[in-house]
Amino acid sequence: MEFIQRLSSIADTDLTVNQPMSVYTGYGVGGNAKAFVKAYTVQALKDVIEVARVHGEKYKILGNGTNVLVSDKGYDGVIITIKGLNSIFRCDDSVTALAGASLCKVIKFACQNHLYGGQPLSGIPASVGGATVMNAGAFGVCMADFVKSVTTLKNGTFFRYDNKSCEFGYRTSRFLLGKEPIISVNFKFYTDPKYKEYDLLTDCSRQRKLHQPEGRSCGCVFKNPTGDYAGRLIDTAGLKGLSVGGARVSHKHGNFILADKNATASDVFNLVNQIKSQVYNKFGVMLKEEIEFLGEF
Question: What is the pLDDT of residues 198-251, one digit of tens each?
């Protein structure tokens, strides 16, 4: 196939055909990607996207894969993992990280360079790119509080957006449509030593272990509706422990779905829909997912 041959010829990449996506997602489920490419440079990423565009193939940029549910039928396109684009460096009083860098490592790097305030985000198991797309948050702060600018790739050209132009909202941004892959993010943290006392790197980890379940999951499944919490609604509806196949609602936290070793993507998908239906029937609130469904369900 010419398309696969073109992909295989791109420098600074690794290509796998029919790659099982269960290895690269938080739930550990899902079918095969038609093509799976590891990009190790920004130029390689540009080249892969261009080849996909020329051949009319779909593509999806994947960071840590913690917020993605891939169909059991797989993904009929190219999945590009950018975990190899993980450089982090200091620029004066800011920190710049490529999109594939671990958010936790960025926060630790900032603290080591006496730049503080982002510690509450340190436990989010996401790449910088993925966390920015979703405007991820924890313990009262979110990415929008610290993002100074974002550089993206659009039609082969780099674009830079300041914080306001990113159009951040609750678990959303202008990048959610997926038409402009994020290349790098520039963060502005605090230099004031008083924020060092707000060092929650250890405490946040402790709180997560205390309140969040262990096991294969994508973290919180649903966004919190205005003025309420998805976990509270699920708990009050009596849905903790509800299961479909190998997927079940956590007894520890209602907004977590856990997948056992026999679970399928369909199990998780169907359980998500059951939760939405029962919460709506009981409270008249339609929950919206934080997770992204990839492929045909």
Answer: 555 555 555 555 566 778 999 899 999 999 999 999 999 999 999 999 999 999
Residue type, 21: M
* Fold (topology level) of 2-81: 3.30.43
CA–CA separation, 119 vs 134, rounded Å?
18
What is the reported pTM? 0.90
Spatial CA neighbour of 272 closest among 27, 24, 74: 27
Mean pLDDT of 258-281: 97
Return the CATH architecture of domain 88-204. Answer: 2-Layer Sandwich (3.30)
Cβ atoms of residues 110 and 188 within 8 Å: no
CB 26 within 8 A of CB 294: no
Q: Give the Cα separation of 106 and 95 in Å (integer).
A: 8
| Pair 188, 93: CB distance under 8 Å | yes
Name the CATH architecture for the domain at 213-294. Answer: Alpha-Beta Complex (3.90)
Residue 246 token pair: 């190998």
* Both structure tokens of 105: 């490592």
DSSP H helical ranges for the chain:
2-8, 42-54, 103-112, 128-133, 201-211, 230-236, 265-283
Whether residue 135 is predicted with pLDDT greater than 60 in this model: the reply is yes
Count the residues in the chain. Answer: 297
CB of 147 closer than 8 Å to CB of 131: no
Tell me what pLDDT residue 212 has: 67
**280 token code pair:** 């709506």
Pairing status of strand 137-138 against strand 94-98 = unpaired
Q: Where are the domains of the chain?
A: 2-81, 88-204, 213-294
In three-state secondary structure terms, 90 is strand
Tokens found for residue 91: 């620029």
> Contact 268/260 with Cβ under 8 angstroms?
no
